[in-house]
Design goal:
The chain is an alpha/beta fold and 284 residues long. It has helices at residues 2-13, 37-48, 60-81, 86-98, 106-109, 124-137, 153-157, 188-205, 211-222, 228-235, 237-250, 261-268; strands spanning 29-33, 52-56, 100-103, 115-118, 143-146, 166-168, 170-171, 181-182. Helix 8 (188-205) packs across helix 10 (228-235).
Length: 284
């Protein structure tokens, strides 16, 4: 998270506003909106790097599941990081968990936070409604950031009065393992990755090859750890559909952004991939 602090310190210091506005912004308290895999991972990384964190979602059941997942992930990290000192590993897990609180009411916790990171459904209207509401309750210095993987940051920021304190922070799944965080306009990875995934689906839809053969070909021929259909199921078919639908709406003539009948069918059947037990493949 340190790079976020440095980035916004630079932008604030270079402004022409009064000295009160030019003071350093130090991110100590982080609020993460969304307790899914991405949100939980972001909360874990923030807590493990010395920030106090509040993880927010709609129900206590979701948050309990998120907290359990974070603990399991932390224990895996501790097992590797403190292989020679199990006691230190346990202390690391407990200390990190102790800095993560949970809440079902975002408005009640953002007033005391320095950074809000949103990791909810990839839907512009839903994100705009969330940020418009939080904008009324968050402190003036609070930075807003979206983990969107495809939507224009300007379109989200315009729902608030803090366009100069709004950023895109695109983490990758699983957050504690993946080293990249994108804050570059355009999100390089997904602009290349999603068309690749969609072309794999089109190959399958045309009957050019089976999904199993396509996955095997990319793993053996390109050295990828997962084939495109395995990756689609891992990312979530619903997430992929949200991205493609959004791009298609903005650029309907682009052949890279055309919807997929088989993807749409699976999503309509609530077969989102690994998280639901079935997508292009079935999971036990």
């Amino acid at each position: 998270m340190a790079f976020v602090t440095r980035q916004f310190m630079r932008s604030v210091s270079s402004s022409s506003t009064a000295s009160a506005s030019a003071k350093k912004i130090i991110v100590k308290h982080v609020t993460v909106i969304g307790g899914g895999l991405m949100g939980a991972g972001i909360a874990q990384v923030a807590a493990a790097t010395g920030h106090t964190v509040v993880l927010v979602d709609q129900t206590e059941d979701i948050l309990a599941k998120s907290k359990k997942g974070i603990e399991e992930s932390l224990r895996k990290v501790a097992k590797k990081k403190f292989a020679e000192n199990l006691k230190a590993g346990d202390e690391f897990v407990e200390k990190t968990l102790s800095t993560i609180a949970t809440s079902t009411d975002a408005a009640s916790v953002v007033h005391s936070t320095d950074l809000v990171v949103e990791a909810i459904v990839e839907n512009l209207k839903v994100k705009n409604e969330l940020f418009k509401r939080l904008d009324k309750f968050a402190a003036e210095h609070t930075i807003f950031a979206s983990n969107t993987s495809s939507l224009q940051i300007t379109s989200i920021a315009n729902a608030t009065t803090r366009q100069d304190r709004f950023a895109g922070l695109h983490f990758f799944n699983p957050v504690p393992v993946m080293k990249l965080v994108e804050d570059t306009p355009g999100f390089i990875v997904n602009r290349l990755l999603v068309p690749y995934l969609m072309e794999a689906i089109r190959l399958y839809e045309r009957g050019d090859a089976s999904k199993e053969d396509i996955d095997t070909a990319m793993k053996l021929g390109a050295g990828y750890p997962m084939g495109p259909f395995e990756l689609l199921d891992y990312v979530g078919l619903d997430t992929t559909k949200f991205i493609v639908d959004g791009w298609h709406e903005m650029d309907a003539e682009n052949p890279l952004h055309q919807p997929s009948p088989s993807l749409n069918k699976l999503v309509a059947e609530n077969k989102f991939g690994k998280k639901t037990g079935e997508g292009f493949y079935k999971y036990k």
